[in-house]
What does this fold into?
Amino acid sequence: DEYLILNKVNSNYTHFYGGYFNAQYRPLGNDKLSIKLDGVVGYQEQSVPTVGFYSGCESGLDFDIDITPGRWGISYQGNILTWAADGAYESTPEPKSHLSCFYKLGAFKFKANVLWLGSLARYKSRTVENDLFQSSSLTKIYNNQSMFTIGFSVDFGAGKKHSLFEEKLSNSDTDRGMF
It folds into this structure.
C-alpha cells in the first residue's frame, strides 16, 4: 500500500521572500490615541512531488487602536485575513476582533475583555490547486463567540521612581593616559 502524506516533509524545496513590518501612529503626539499596524508581505514558491510547483503572494495585517486618556483605556484589536501557503495546503490565521477596557488604580489594573466580538473563531484550509486531489475544511468554534473575561494585575515596579538622569555619576579619570 502507498500512502500520501500531505505536509512539508514531502516538499522538494520551499522559498519565501518577503518581510515583516510594524508601524505606530500617535496623532495627538502622546499615548492618548495610538494606532498600530503589524503585517507581513511575501512571495512563496515550493515544489511538492504530489502537487507540483506552487507559488503565490501572501500578506496579512493586524491592527490595534488604543485610547488611553488617563487612568482608564480602551483597545480594539483586529486583523485582515489572507491565505498563506503551508506545505501542500493554504490556510488562514485565526480572526481577531477583541475589545478590551481597563482602569488603573495605583499599582493595580482591572481589565475586561470581549474576545471574538460578534464573530466566531474560524479556521480555514484548502489544498493548493492540483490535478491529483482537492480538499478543504472550515472549522468554527461557536462557544467562544463574544467570550467575556475579567482580570486584574499588579505592577510591582509602579512605586519605583528611578531614573539614570536623576543620579549624579562621579566618574573621574585620574590617570594621565601615559605608560
About this structure: The two ends are 82 Å apart (CA to CA). The chain has a mean pLDDT of 81.
